Amino acid sequence: MSVAQRNYTPALYKGNWEVVIGMEVHAQVISQSKLFSGASTTFGAEPNSQVSFVDAAFPGMLPVINTFCVDQAIKTGLGLNAEINLWSRFDRKNYFYPDLPSGYQISQFYNPIIGPGWINVRLDEAKVFGLRINHIHLEQDAGKSFHDQHPHKSYIDLNRAGVALMEIVTEPDMRSKEEASAFLRILRTTLRYLGTCDGNMEEGSLRSDVNVSVRRPDETLGTRVEVKNINSSRFVEQAIEFEVSRQIDLIENGKKVIQETRLFNSSSGETKSMRSKEDAQDYRYMPDPDLPPLILSAERVESIRRTLPELPDKKLTWLQEDYGLSYYDAALITSECGNAAYYEECLAVEARKSGNKVSNEKAKMLANWFTGDLFAYLNKAGLDLGASKISPAYLVELVDLVCDDSISGKIAKDVFDIVWSGGESPVAVVERQGMRQITDSAAIEAAISKVIDQNQDKAQEYRNGKDKLFGFFVGQVMKETGGKANPNMVNDILKKKLSVDS
Amino acid sequence: MKISDQDVLKISELAKIKILPNEVPQIASELEKILEFVEQLNEIDCSGIEPLSTVTVAQAYERQDVVDDNNCLDDIVGNAPEQSSGMFVVPKIVE
Lengths: 502, 95
What we know:
The complex is a heterodimer of chains A (about 500) and B (about 100).
Chain A: E1 18-28, E2 65-66, H1 67-79, E3 87-88, E4 91-94, E5 104-107, E6 117-122, E7 128-140, E8 144-146, E9 153-157, E10 164-170, H2 177-194, E11 206-215, E12 225-230, H3 233-252, E13 260-265, E14 270-276, E15 286-287, E16 294-295, H4 298-305, H5 312-323, H6 327-334, H7 337-354, H8 360-381, H9 392-403, H10 409-422, H11 426-432, H12 441-454, H13 456-463, H14 469-480, H15 487-499
Parallel strand pairs in A: 12-13
Antiparallel strand pairs in A: 1-10, 1-11, 3-16, 4-5, 4-15, 6-7, 7-10, 8-9, 11-12, 13-14
Chain B: H1 5-15, H2 24-39, E1 62-63, H3 73-78, E2 83-84, E3 87-91
Antiparallel strand pairs in B: 2-3
Helix pairs in contact in B: 1-2
């Protein structure tokens, strides 16, 4: 895999404005304890129950870095094709706010742990572009303020203070809101594959700052505006849409865009000014004297590289090329690592059973049952894939029953339903309920003769040219056999029988 | 480096420190003296010398990812001037 060149020309806005977007994504690192303390990171605990003296900035407390958070950052960097800086360091970003008790956030300003990287972003089957990552650094999260508990007071919960974040900073390589939200989706998927961030938007595990500017094509970059702290890809699109029209209106009316930080209001879909560059805080970055440089060995990086899972873009490619899946199916299957693992297990089970590579036809059937039927059942029940009683082995068993003509596709739906609720294997269900398809031609012939005998008049009408009656006979035969007759055989035998006078 | 009255007012605004108009000239001249004093450092030629990031140990010690310092709510909020339902209570913050 290598970085993709954009293989299409992005549309201009209102005919002649190019939109330029860069993002800073704050991804919460999956870890047991915080970046610099032994307090827990579990979401939703009692206020201030997961706070150590370090997090609360009690005097004399010293931060000690969590080795697993460092590994997680390295893994993320490798997953985003980035350079790993073997020498990095932490800096203090000073600002004054009650959810930050020390008065500074420990971050990496001058020497981040991860250098330049890239990720390929697909908009659909045809469109792809490569997005450059500027760097990734580790930093602490802040606490949480509540302003609605008291008319004159704010309440502070420091449970989140000190939890490790990776700030993923992109180059301004995106040209539309669609590209921005597609990037956020593939980034989230990739982090979930890597197991370095759970990507849970509702719990704030992935928060984005979006930098937006507009310009005439081929001109230098316009003045950018930063919209802070957006927690979903839908809101990212809305914020960009609003900012782009606001900025174009200003310029077309002879005014200027001022460089500022704005806040997005998710209920109105609008952004409003938070502070201009003139009032910008001076963060007075300085190396944190409490933390010596973070020095990594090349062996450590290499051993983490060996634990990297196969990433979605690669899976997407081989599912299409080796198994003939459509882009749609392959994209759906690879959009969540759990889905991909389930489907790959189906392929593995089938390959073990048959001793051969799974055929494209069977791969397609498995994909249909998985993304169609199983997804629909899971959705309806509001369940995760992990809670499904239909294991990959069961799904393979069901598809095999259809492929070897043991049951028809229609009966298979009934079997699926019974397996879903009971947890019995498809073969056991078919045997116990006597659902096995009738492929014995004598039995089918007997059923057909009976139906024709009972409907002599209609048989005559059919022979006189009323072709439409064929469907009626098929229906009657299926009824006679409890829906178990092999439909192809019914068709063939029925045609023969009806064509001769009885 | 010359510090103007405007510089002093700007800094006071950013630092959220209230400075009365009659204090401005005196503070401007004091800040100027401080900067002049610090500027002596520029006389030292430190080209080609690696910046010193720490004077203690050369390399960060890393701790294991275990929860070993948790559930000490009472100790954490115990010394707060004001607390309620386990939370610190501070003057209302308005962005």
